[in-house]
Write a structure and sequence with these properties.
alpha/beta; Amidase signature (AS) enzymes; eight-stranded mixed β-sheet; three-stranded mixed β-sheet; 16 helices; globular
């Protein structure tokens, strides 16, 4: 296999190649380190490249394979978003306000390592993973490999840029208001937000009052299923991509929960996806979800930022002005309002909708990838208003309910940039989302597409 083909082969295929002795883990790590050295200066996807440590881990993985040991990710190089603890490394959370190295791996990293994965580095995120872009004074602007003038989204933008550019086989992400799905959409990737508590956040208990979950950015649905099975400890998900989904009742909506204009290219991608699903034999109809006039998700989000600043940050004085502004807004929320928001998850609001429909198809973002660093230097309120215009709460509502939702590549904008389409399912039914996404992948063949910078 040619080197470029190998770099984009993905987690499942690389695991097979290592298992069959066709490539070594060390060869893969060396390949990615060369690509990182060449391409990361243009993208700023990685905050820390763990070169020496990854090579040692790869050597050990090759030794284990030679001894006949089998693990599902043995020797596969992945990246970790810099909100996950890696033993001996400082978890920066996109800021200079942390300085204490982690005493042990987070539970997700531990599970990935136990499955044989090699951690090649830590990817960039905006300060405290707050915004839907990846930029800040501590580690600079991360750029989209499809067009480096555009944003990869956030807050898992470093992970998305790294995977899309072929700098690692896959990467972890976290999603509190869309932070896996938004960058997946901007970078032409698969990004699944699993059901709340499917993957442990340990050492965190909950984050942003229950909004946040952990997951992955990948190029293929099969890779997502494999990684989710490991992260969630559920082997039943492994064969989900091979299941032909029964005839599903699909609701399609391009209506955002908040006032915003949905770009014509985004509407077209959703409509084309709906048409493809109809051609595959599914029952497809237009139907808007009963979004609330005021979602408790925004209250939880802002109060969660304030909680992070007040209770978790080691050096709050080192935070950027915008982050302090977000925290100030969160602190101003009256206690009774926060209590109300914590007691509401909106699940009952959608019970009837998801009795009538098996899944919902909707946009991820209201527009194609926006300018990189678009909100750099702005205060909290102006940044929030800017985000609402391009990310009008279509993702965050499902963090509130805790339902699984997956972003898949739905098409390209007129200027050649990826557009993601979101599919929302019922609680704990990731298998249906994976099966349906795999069916779409077989038709649309998005894994064949690579960004120009790659």
């Amino acid at each position: 296999m040619e080197r470029d083909e190998l770099a984009f082969a993905g987690v499942a295929r690389q695991a097979e190649l290592i298992r069959d002795g066709e490539v070594s883990s060390r060869e893969l790590v060396m390949l990615y380190l060369e690509r990182i050295e060449r391409l990361n200066p243009h993208l700023n996807a990685f905050r820390k490249v763990m070169s020496e440590r990854a090579l040692v881990d790869a050597q050990q993985a090759d030794g284990r394979r030679g001894a006949g040991e089998e693990r599902p990710l043995l020797g596969v190089p992945i990246a970790v978003k810099d909100v996950e603890d890696v033993t001996g490394e400082v978890t920066r959370w996109g800021t200079d306000a942390f300085s204490t190295p982690a005493a042990q791996d987070s539970e997700l990293v531990r599970r990935l390592r136990a499955a044989g994965a090699v951690v090649i580095g830590k990817t960039n995120t905006p300060e405290l993973a707050i915004i839907g872009d990846t930029e800040g004074p501590a580690f600079g602007i991360t750029r989209n490999p499809w067009n480096t003038d555009r944003s990869p989204g956030g807050s898992s933008g470093g992970s998305a840029a790294a995977v899309a550019a072929g700098l690692c086989a896959a990467a972890t992400g976290s999603d509190g208001m869309g932070s896996i799905r938004i960058p997946a959409a901007n970078c032409g990737l698969v990004g699944l937000k699993p059901t709340r508590d499917r993957i442990p956040l340990t050492p965190l208990g909950e984050h942003w009052y229950g909004l946040s979950v952990a997951g992955f950015l990948t190029r293929s649905v099969r890779d997502t299923a494999l990684l989710l099975s490991i992260g969630a400890g559920d082997e039943a998900l492994l064969d989900a991509p091979d299941r032909s989904p029964e005839r599903l009742r699909v609701a399609v909506s391009t209506k955002p929960p908040s006032p915003a204009r949905v770009h014509g290219d985004v509407k077209r991608a959703v409509e084309q996806t709906a048409g493809r699903l109809r051609a595959l034999g599914h029952e497809v109809e237009s139907d808007d979800p009963p979004y609330p006039p005021l979602s408790p998700s925004t209250t939880r989000y802002l109060a969660g930022v304030a909680q992070d600043v007040d209770e978790r940050v080691e050096r709050p004085d080192r935070l950027q002005r915008r982050t302090r502004g977000f925290a100030q807004v969160g602190r101003a929320i009256p206690r009774q309002v926060l209590d109300w928001a914590r007691g509401e998850d909106d699940s009952s609001r959608y019970e009837g909708f998801f009795r009538e429909h098996d899944v919902l198809v909707t946009p991820v973002n209201a527009m194609p990838p926006w300018r990189a660093g678009q909100w750099e230097g702005l205060g909290a309120v102006r940044t929030l208003l800017g985000m609402v215009r391009v990310q009008p709460a279509m993702t965050g509502e499902w963090n509130l309910t805790g339902q699984p939702a997956i972003s898949v590549p739905g098409g390209m904008s007129d200027d050649g940039l990826p557009i993601g389409v979101m599919i929302v399912g019922r609680h704990n039914d990731e298998a249906t989302l994976i099966a349906l996404a795999a069916q779409l992948e077989g038709e649309l063949r998005w894994t064949d597409r690579r960004p120009p910078i790659a």
